[in-house]
Each structure stands twice: as C-alpha cells, then as structure tokens.
Amino acid sequence: MDTWTEIEGKRIHDPLFLKQYQQKSEDSYMSASSTTTSSSSKQCNKVLGPVIVGAGPSGLAVAACLKEKGIPSLVIERSDCIASLWQHKTYDRLSLHLPKKFCELPLMPFPFDFPPYPSKKQFVLYLEAYAKKFGINPSFNRTVISAEHDKTLDQWRLHVIGPNKEKEEYTCRWLIVATGENAETVTPEIEGLTEFSGPVVHTSMYKSGQHFEGKKVLVVGCGNSGMEVCLDLCNHNAQPHIVVRDTVCSCKVSVH
Ligand SMILES: Cc1cc2nc3c(=O)[nH]c(=O)nc-3n(C[C@H](O)[C@H](O)[C@H](O)COP(=O)(O)OP(=O)(O)OC[C@H]3O[C@@H](n4cnc5c(N)ncnc54)[C@H](O)[C@@H]3O)c2cc1C
C-alpha cells in the first residue's frame, strides 16, 4: 500500500530503470515490513465485509458486484471524489482512448446515446450514476498507508490517515486493493532538469494548451498522453517537439 511501491512496480517493468532501482526497491520493502506503529491513540473500526481501497472504476466495479451478491463492503478513498484520476488528474480534451465497449463496468452498460469514445465528462457522469445505482458511498479523504495480515485472527489490519490527519485503524477479513496503475505520478530523473528555468509539468497536472500559446514545448514520451498533449498544444498554437526514447513503430493500414 505504500505509494513508492506502486512507482517502483512500474519501473520494475522498465529495463532502463531496473538495474538502478532493484536494490533500492528491495531495501524499501524490507523497511516497510518491519515498521511498527502505536495503536494507543487510534480509532479502531471493525468492518464485517470486505474493505476495498480505491474508488476508481475498479473499486466501484468490485463494490457493485459484491452488492449484487448481497455482500456489503467499505470503499476507502484518499481523494475527495470517485474516479479521482479522471476528475483531478487528466487534461480537458480527454475522451476514452478505447472504444466504450471495452471500458464499461459490469452490470450497467453505458447509456445508448453515448458516442463510441465518451468524453471524460461523460465517463465521470456514468461512474457517478453507477455508484448511485449500487448505493456505493466511499469513505473519502482517507489514505490507507499500510495493511498487514494477522494470521492468527485471519484478519487484515489497515492503518489509515483520516481527513484531519488523524490515525485510524480498520480490521476486516477480506481486503481488495484497487489503487490503480496510474494513480501515482512518475517523473523521471532527467539530468539537468533542476537547472531548467521554465515550468516542468507532469501530464497529470496538464489541463490545456491554452497556457502555452506561442511557446516552445518539449513533450517527453510518446504514449497516448504524450501524443494527445502534443496535438492539444498544436491546436493552441504552441510549438511542441516530442522526444521518444525508443523507436516509433509505424504500420501501413489498408482501408477497403
Ligand atoms: C490519459 C488516460 C487515458 C486513459 N484512457 C483509458 C481508456 O480509454 N479506457 C480504459 O479502460 N482505461 C483508460 N485509462 C486507464 C485508467 O487507468 C483506467 O481508466 C481507470 O482509471 C483504472 O481504474 P482503477 O480503479 O484501476 O484505478 P484509478 O482510476 O487510478 O483509481 C485508483 C483510486 O485509488 C485511490 N488510491 C490510491 N492509493 C490509495 C490509498 N493508499 N488509499 C486510498 N485510496 C487510494 C486513488 O486516489 C484513485 O481514486 C486511461 C488513463 C489515462 C491516464
């Protein structure tokens, strides 16, 4: 549940970072597992059903499927809303990158009149309707900082920081981690970056190209977000350049 673990998890799949971070990763896993906390000033909550960490699309889907089977659950979310990635960490022009048939959640299709690639606003509206339909009311502004399993009691013990920075404890028999793969920003350590005097913006903080009109912008990375941000910058009369670490594959597509 430690946020660094997620970032390291991403880097573990990256051969260029693998060597550099392997040792660091091992060290941090060791120290995380040996952390001890005092429970004297904590509020303790026993949850009868499963606890789901994260109120993104995955967490909501799990809660709905459990509800459908008559199993209540508690969703704990560190942000102040459902789908916080979509609501707080995405650019204005975003629409689903995949056709809607691949993105809908179980038990409730997208509205029939949604376009093949719903906008971010439509997707959030759909998720809000989904949470309402299944009566999912996450416990917001609570960050799970660690989870440990007590084998003797067969219970998970979660340490949580509450809305006013207070320590809380939750115990439950089942724990579902739905904290996402894009929930943490990863900014690469680029030599010389600290000496660069202009703004450095991670895509999770980028909203629109209107702030970059007439400016030269270097976009690092050409995944979906990098490409789309470049297009957005062009549309707002900025002068973007894109830097790509690997080769770019292009293929010929014949249309019949
Ligand atoms: C630009 C962009 C475009 C995308 N387009 C598509 C698309 O078209 N189709 C598609 O299927 N996917 C797309 N994705 C992928 C995206 O990851 C998924 O849409 C979806 O958001 C994943 O849902 P999730 O619930 O697994 O994770 P998230 O949406 O990341 O939700 C995880 C939640 O867990 C919370 N959380 C994290 N850590 C803790 C903690 N310690 N304690 C409490 N809460 C915590 C976070 O605040 C967050 O709300 C896109 C992503 C991006 C960035």
Provide structural commentary.
- By secondary structure, this protein is of the alpha/beta class.
- The protein folds into two domains: 3-20 and 38-177, FAD/NAD(P)-binding domain; 193-243, FAD/NAD(P)-binding domain, CATH 3.50.50.60.
- It is 28% helix and 17% strand.
- The chain is built from six helices and nine strands; from the N terminus they run H-H-E-E-H-E-H-H-E-E-E-E-E-H-E.
- It has helices spanning 3-12, 15-33, 57-68, 84-88, 120-133, 224-235; strands spanning 43-46, 51-53, 74-76, 143-150, 155-161, 167-172, 175-177, 216-220, 239-243.
- A four-stranded mixed β-sheet has the order 1-6-5-4, with no helix packed on it.
- A hairpin with a 4-residue loop joins strand 4 (143-150) and strand 5 (155-161).
- The longest helix has 19 residues, at 15-33.
- The radius of gyration is 21 Å and the shape is globular.
- Mean pLDDT is 87; it is low at 25-39.
- One of its GO terms (molecular function) is flavin adenine dinucleotide binding.
- Belongs to the FMO family.
- One of its GO terms (biological process) is auxin biosynthetic process.
- Its EC number is 1.14.13.168.
- This is indole-3-pyruvate monooxygenase.
Q: How is the topology of this model organized?
A:
Layout: H1 3-12, H2 15-33, E1 43-46, E2 51-53, H3 57-68, E3 74-76, H4 84-88, H5 120-133, E4 143-150, E5 155-161, E6 167-172, E7 175-177, E8 216-220, H6 224-235, E9 239-243
Parallel strand pairs: 1-6, 2-3, 2-7, 8-9
Antiparallel strand pairs: 4-5, 5-6
Bound molecules: flavin-adenine dinucleotide (FAD).
Flavin-adenine dinucleotide is lined by residues 1, 53-59, 76-79, 83-85, 90, 94, 96-98, 103, 143-144, 178-183, 225.
